[in-house]
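Protocol step 4 of 6: structure prediction from sequence.
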Amino acid sequence: MKSNSLLMFAAWSWLAVAGFADTGEESFCHQAVAAFAGAESVGDRKYAPDRKVDILHLALDVTPDFEKSTVRGEATLTFKPISKPLDELRLDAVDLTVSNVRCSATLAGHQVTGKEIIVTFAPPIPRGARRS
């Protein structure tokens, strides 16, 4: 079951950024960046998506199940919209099973696709307002 492999990848990525995961020749973080370099793009140009929010804090609570090769976890983001009110937040969630989405703002709903979680706010979160 691949349901939480991205969550585990995110946890290891944060450890790599903090300098805890070094594979010898190059860091895990550099390997992760190289893996994403092959993502879909137009021609040879590769661009990061526009940032709609500043991520102020990310807390991960993960529990691996080595026998089943799965990971259960919870991610808590603290963020604030950058330049305009935020009516929708899209988070990468490739092959994840998402059971619940909560927010300190009023939610209009959420949708989980095979690639992302789309969280819709009603009313939109004002620019600069901090939410979790």
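Step 5 (inspection) to follow. The beta strands are 53-65, 70-81, 86-92, 107-112, 116-125.
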